[in-house]
Specification:
The protein is 36% helix and 28% strand. It is built from nine helices and 15 strands.
């Protein structure tokens, strides 16, 4: 199997074996939340193996996933990686695949329409024996998924995994997942946000990215419902860019709401230009929205 063209997280199919390489925690959390949200909406059971389950569930809730009701109903599990793939400090393909097959059997037995599994591979960066079996594990997953209603999203931090490891596992995935990106350079990244819907800006924003920002805003305000403009990782924004964002917000229907999420220095720019007086706008600082 070989990786097909990159797709967005919302385009994954029932038996895809997808590879998500992410560069920052916000990107991982956003895309995983969308993957889980869409699975639950489709009547699927979802499981996420991650490094810190309690923190992960809090982040999913903040992104609009109905964590409490889904976990109570048994349709969602968020599990520590060591409780699924590892046996103590050891990794073995047979053990890990046994866990995955039990999840598939449980999903079928309980009558769900299918299963979505997200695997944060951060555990493979710890001192674990058997890590050389990681490519074989990815190959076994690829073999197990055809003719099922099970999809697996393998998650690799591209800043922490070496290129050789990433290349060794890439050939076993059918899809490569990426966020829609409008601008990316060493100083600024503008990309689509999926959960909650909107856009995310990180770095330093000035007039040099005017066209990229305009495109991102125009596509964002065309989606249905409320949106979030996530600027929590933005360290600078100039006044023309601030005005452009507020002009886009003013153009939206009055029954829609917009969350402007940012730190206090950025928030002060929006206050200066009258954000508080625009109907439907909520200015949120920190991680509160």
């Amino acid at each position: 199997m070989t990786v097909n063209a990159e797709v967005q997280i919302t385009d994954l199919k029932v038996n895809d074996h997808a590879c998500l390489t992410f560069g920052e925690p916000e990107e991982l959390l956003d895309l995983t939340a969308a993957y889980i949200r869409d699975g639950l909406t489709g009547g699927l059971r979802v499981v996420w193996l991650c490094e810190e389950p309690q923190g992960a569930m809090a982040e999913l809730s903040r992104r609009g996933v109905a964590v409490r009701s889904a976990t109570a109903a048994g349709s969602m599990d968020v599990v520590a990686s060591g409780d699924g793939l590892l046996s103590g400090r050891s990794f073995a393909v047979d053990h890990a695949m046994g866990w995955l097959r039990r999840q598939m059997e449980l999903t079928s037995r309980e009558g769900y329409a299918g299963l979505r599994v997200a695997l944060d591979m951060g555990w493979a960066l710890r001192p674990v024996s058997g890590i050389e079996q990681l490519p074989a594990f990815e190959e076994e997953i690829a073999t197990a998924l055809p003719d099922t209603r099970v999809s697996v999203l393998c998650q690799y931090d591209r800043e922490r995994f070496d290129p050789v490891t990433l290349a060794s596992v890439s050939t076993f995935h059918t899809r490569s997942v990426t966020a829609a990106t409008y601008h990316s350079d060493p100083l600024l990244r503008i990309c689509r946000q999926y959960a909650p819907p909107g856009i995310r800006l990180a770095g330093q924003l000035d007039r040099s990215a005017e066209e990229s920002l305009a495109l991102a805003l125009s596509e964002t305000i065309r989606v249905d419902g409320d949106i979030t403009i996530n600027m929590s990782e933005l360290s600078f924004i100039d006044l023309p860019s601030t005005r452009m964002i507020l002009d886009a917000v003013r153009s939206m229907a009055p029954d829609r709401s917009v969350v402007l999420r940012c730190g206090h220095p950025i928030a002060s720019r929006f206050v200066l230009l009258g954000a508080a007086g625009i109907a439907g706008v909520r200015l949120v600082t920190g991680h509160g929205g």
